[in-house]
TrEMBL record:
GO terms for molecular function: oxidoreductase activity. Keywords: Oxidoreductase. This is NAD(P)-binding protein. PANTHER family: RETINOL DEHYDROGENASE (PTHR24320), RETINOL DEHYDROGENASE 11 (PTHR24320:SF283). Belongs to the short-chain dehydrogenases/reductases (SDR) family. It comes from Exidia glandulosa HHB12029. It holds the Pfam family adh_short. The keyword Oxidoreductase applies. InterPro entries: NAD(P)-bd_dom_sf (IPR036291), SDR_fam (IPR002347).
Length: 317
């Protein structure tokens, strides 16, 4: 760890409310877009923490708005003056991503976007391909967010200090930085390997956005029990702890389980602290030095950008 933040006293036990309380002027009157706002996840706690410092607009983007209506209700209970916008967004569908971005771009309550928090994701799922023919974890964790972010860039660039937060994981080190076989056509599918690829892509996407003049930070929330682990079986758990973790030098010990309030804090440091350097990886509310070299390699980032354009049928510069 180092202390390239405004609050070196923040730790893995720091809560989202404590982070927001430290940066009220970075929240008040601003507009935030958060993907993955389901009530039992980190995204919801991120939003309710932000609400306590009175942003002007909170955009909640997820697959089923009726399921995260309780989060909108919680925001209204905290501050009824906050404009809450619910948007249908299925990150595993490029068509849905385009429709969601169009909704936000045309929404009169969203003249610009100060902060986009790409929080949604999948973990250790069985093999499947999306309707666009992309492995499901790579699609939902990276490709969908790549397309969503780039489509929203006009409104991000309209903000004075835009920030894009790509929520990643220490599991990025289970990737390789090589995305030449993202659909596992050449090698047998491994759900943890696929997760590692997608989380590595989150970090590399931040590197690419920084190269293009947008501040972007990739935080690891820590070990938090949420619905993200709904696909975990005993065998997958054993594989993570006995095979993969032991094979990676200096892999973070998973001996401190965070609650949701602690789980959203590093995301909020990434979103709110102006002292955090661009294109960095955060863990436990601080800049971390244990990021894999292949996950911050600019050549890998460039190749991933090119592949992402191909998978979305776009040509983002």
């Amino acid at each position: 760890m180092n202390t390239e933040t405004s609050h070196p006293e923040f730790t893995r036990a720091t809560t989202g409310d404590e982070v927001v309380a430290a940066f009220p002027d970075r929240v008040r009157g601003r507009i935030f877009v958060v993907t993955g706002p389901t009530p039992t996840g980190i995204g919801a706690t991120t939003l309710t923490s932000l609400a306590k410092a009175h942003p002007s607009v909170l955009v909640l983007a997820g697959r089923t708005p009726s399921k995260f209506q309780p989060v909108a209700d919680s925001i209204a209970a905290i501050d009824s003056k906050i404009k809450v916008v619910l948007v249908t967004l299925d990150l595993s569908s490029n068509a849905s991503v385009r429709a969601a971005a169009k909704t936000i771009l045309e929404h009169p309550d969203v003249p610009h976007i100060d902060t986009l928090i790409n929080n949604a994701g999948l973990m250790a799922t069985p093999f499947s391909l999306t309707e666009d023919g992309i492995e499901s974890q790579f699609a939902a964790c990276h490709v969908g967010h790549f397309l969503f972010t780039n489509l929203l860039l006009p409104k991000l660039r309209a903000a004075p200090e835009p920030v894009v937060v790509n929520v990643t994981s220490s599991g990025h080190r289970m990737g390789t930085g090589d995305f030449s076989d993202v659909n596992w056509e050449k090698t047998p599918y491994n759900s943890w390997g696929a997760y590692g690829h997608s989380k590595c892509a989150n970090v590399l996407f931040s590197v690419s956005l920084a190269e293009r003049g947008i501040k972007s930070v990739a935080p690891h929330p820590g070990w938090v029990k949420t619905d993200l682990g709904r696909h975990l079986t005993e065998d997958l758990g054993n594989e993570l702890f006995t095979k993969i973790v032991s094979s990676i030098p200096n892999f973070e010990p998973l001996n401190f389980e965070k609650n949701l309030d602690q789980g959203c804090s590093t995301t909020l440091v990434a979103a709110l602290d102006p002292a955090v350097p661009n294109a960095t990886y955060l863990r436990d509310c601080q800049v971390a030095r244990d990021v894999a070299a292949f996950a911050v390699d600019k050549a890998n980032a460039a190749k991933l950008w090119e592949l992402s354009n191909k998978l979305t049928g776009e040509n983002f510069a």
